[in-house]
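Appendix C: a fully annotated inverse folding record. The material below is reproduced so that readers can follow the format used throughout the book. The structure is listed first as tokens, followed by the designed sequence.
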């Protein structure tokens, strides 16, 4: 019986143990290299665990906290220039609506100093950094560093530069060195890495599969364009008539399809080899190239609308076509190449879109994207060659093909709006989320009217009636328009949020939530016990009411007899923002947060100074915590043995944990179940 009881107890502890760990993904070491009698290089080396990334010194205001190096002034040396850092990775983050630069693997920061004394001396200082993985962010962490530089005689210095190594293990949060709003300023100078190679980030297989499917759909769409579709029966008929046997026709058709795949995949590989993943990443994050991408998409859309036609030089097409006459497999390959060249005016938007979307920097993406596109593009030719009787069942070419092209033009123009996000942030255009949504509403309304025959382009045929496929597309289009409308008043629109600016300039939903109800019963359901401390600086998402001080929240929970939801969060916590954008807006989640809990949001990176009477001496590291953020971090570590965010803990009115905590997880139903189980446990405790 005791064994069963012990096993059950351990089983209950497993979820808690899996969450309860103080993470230390960045290990720092410090080396100094004396390059001459009066100069030295101080190296600050960060070894970052796989899957984590460390933020740069150069982060715009309003983003995550940057890495900051502070050297204690001394008469023995002076700093030469600023701390240099490697190139790193720079990507657009929709949660902060800005480009964020970060590092992974092993990196080296360098600070050059001029030595002002012949005697031995010590350089001391402190650094502060923030790091995240794809599920968690850690609070600003401080590390003290020290370099001991010995006196060197000129004769010795000329023979061998001295290298002094001093390793300091990663420590808990340091004392204050950067106030709120302080920016890290430095020159962007490339530094070399140490001998340990920087590891390539783990490939996200899930996202690659999604990208492959999108490219596959683009290939099918490309096959339905006027440049390609009429060539399908012509090409298949050519194979059947020119071959001496049915088997020969099928072999030629199969090789034809494989040739198309090879040609398009080669383009993807070529892009990767010519530019490389790092170059592609840098291109994708530049506001200049993003404007160019938008103009390209707009040009493609105008071409699809019939304003002009994009064609390759005729010499290129003719040279390829001449090789077809050679016959055999070589002729079949050049026939495939001729198709690729001739269909360029219709396939260019798809190919360009795939290569642009592959610019996130993953070295496999261009290849996988072009492979997926070419497979779908070549499939109709191959299948119909194997089953020629299906040719009779194919819809005849006609005006509907141009309709496909125009519809794709509307979709391409809408998707191209995404590339305005980066310049909008970088150049401060101030284009709001509502503006983007309004443009989409207009575009898809026009597309719906076009499908109904209310709008006609120069190359369109008369629409005598509306078939079932067109009707279904009309219904889907106007349904999407209706879905977009609530976004004009602040609805999250989660399915398309990646294409939109993160914040709304006007949110009617939050205003209603903040002022909902006028009767006593409604007010009692959501009002707080007293005015939240720090409420002038800190706010909860979506108009929710809550506290930002644990003691104040606990007192209110006792008064209202409600459980507490502690939300360990941060201004610079990317994954916290993801949860607030994707999970919290759900109506069922909002109802429970608003009515069932006293929310206590504890910001781990809030730099508000505490009055001296509220300073605490940490039982974890023995340091005095003087700011609200450091106090909250210490509370999270000492109480729950965790230092990651987001982290959600449910407590009763005595501060006792109700159920195992929950970390980053965008499963909405899972979060609802988490909140429901907390309420259930709270009620059971009340009945005891």
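Designed amino acids, in order:
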């Amino acid at each position: 019986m005791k064994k069963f009881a012990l096993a059950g107890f351990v089983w209950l502890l497993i979820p808690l143990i899996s969450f309860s760990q103080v993470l230390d993904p960045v290990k720092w070491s410090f080396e100094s290299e004396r390059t001459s009698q009066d100069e030295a290089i101080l190296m600050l080396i960060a070894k970052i665990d796989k899957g984590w990334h460390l933020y740069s010194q150069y982060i715009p205001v309003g983003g995550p906290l940057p890495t900051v190096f502070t050297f204690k002034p001394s008469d023995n040396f002076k700093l030469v220039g600023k701390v240099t850092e490697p190139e790193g990775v720079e990507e657009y983050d929709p949660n902060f609506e800005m480009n964020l630069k970060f590092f992974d693997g092993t990196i080296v920061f360098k600070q050059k100093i001029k030595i002002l004394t012949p005697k031995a001396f010590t350089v001391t200082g402190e650094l502060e950094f923030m790091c995240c993985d794809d599920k968690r962010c850690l609070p600003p962490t401080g590390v003290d560093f020290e370099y001991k530089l010995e006196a060197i005689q000129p004769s010795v210095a000329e023979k061998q530069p001295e290298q002094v190594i001093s390793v300091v293990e990663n420590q808990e949060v340091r004392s204050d060195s950067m106030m709120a709003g302080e920016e890290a300023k430095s020159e962007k100078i490339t530094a070399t890495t140490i001998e340990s190679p920087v590891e390539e980030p783990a490939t996200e297989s899930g996202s690659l599969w999604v990208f492959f499917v999108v490219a596959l759909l683009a290939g099918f769409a490309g096959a339905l364009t006027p440049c390609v579709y009429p060539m399908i029966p012509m090409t298949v008929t050519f194979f059947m008539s020119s071959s001496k046997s049915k088997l020969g026709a099928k072999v030629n058709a199969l090789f034809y399809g494989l040739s198309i795949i090879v040609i398009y995949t080669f383009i993807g590989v070529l892009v990767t080899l010519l530019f490389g993943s790092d170059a592609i990443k840098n291109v994708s994050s530049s506001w200049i190239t993003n404007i160019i991408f938008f103009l390209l998409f707009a040009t493609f859309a105008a071409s699809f609308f019939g304003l002009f036609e994009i064609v390759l030089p005729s010499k290129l097409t003719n040279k390829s076509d001449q090789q077809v006459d050679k016959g055999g497999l070589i002729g079949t390959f050049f026939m495939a190449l001729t198709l690729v060249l001739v269909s360029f005016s219709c396939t260019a938007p798809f190919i360009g879109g795939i290569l642009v979307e592959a610019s996130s920097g993953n070295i496999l993406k261009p290849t996988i994207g072009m492979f997926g596109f070419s497979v779908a593009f070549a499939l109709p030719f191959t299948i119909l060659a194997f089953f020629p009787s299906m040719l009779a069942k194919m819809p005849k070419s006609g005006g509907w093909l141009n309709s496909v092209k125009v519809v794709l033009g509307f979709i391409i123009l809408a998707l191209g709006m995404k590339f305005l996000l980066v310049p909008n942030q970088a150049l401060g255009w101030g284009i709001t989320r509502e503006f983007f949504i309004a443009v989409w509403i207009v575009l898809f309304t026009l597309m719906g009217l076009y499908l109904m025959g209310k709008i006609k382009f120069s190359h369109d045929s008369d629409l005598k009636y509306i078939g079932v496929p067109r009707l279904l597309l009309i219904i889907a289009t106007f349904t999407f328009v209706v879905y977009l409308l609530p976004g004009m008043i602040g609805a999250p629109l989660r399915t398309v949020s990646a294409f939109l600016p993160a914040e709304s300039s006007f949110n009617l939903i939050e205003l209603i939530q903040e002022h909902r109800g006028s009767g006593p019963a409604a007010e009692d359901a959501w009002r707080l016990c007293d005015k939240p401390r720090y409420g002038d600086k800190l706010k909860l998402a979506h108009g929710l009411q809550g506290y930002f001080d644990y003691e104040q929240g606990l007192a209110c929970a006792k008064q209202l007899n409600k459980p507490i939801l502690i939300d360990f969060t941060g201004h610079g916590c990317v994954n916290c923002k993801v949860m607030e954008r994707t999970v919290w807006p759900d109506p069922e989640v909002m109802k429970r947060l608003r009515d069932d809990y006293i929310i206590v949001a504890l910001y781990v990176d809030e730099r508000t100074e505490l009055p001296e009477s509220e300073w605490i001496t940490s039982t974890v590291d023995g340091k005095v915590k003087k700011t609200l953020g450091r106090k909250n971090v210490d509370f999270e570590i000492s109480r729950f043995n965790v230092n990651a965010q987001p982290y959600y803990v449910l407590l009763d009115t005595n501060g006792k944990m109700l159920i195992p905590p929950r970390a980053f997880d965008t499963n909405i139903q899972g979060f609802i179940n988490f909140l429901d189980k907390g309420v259930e446990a709270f009620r059971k405790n009340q009945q005891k």
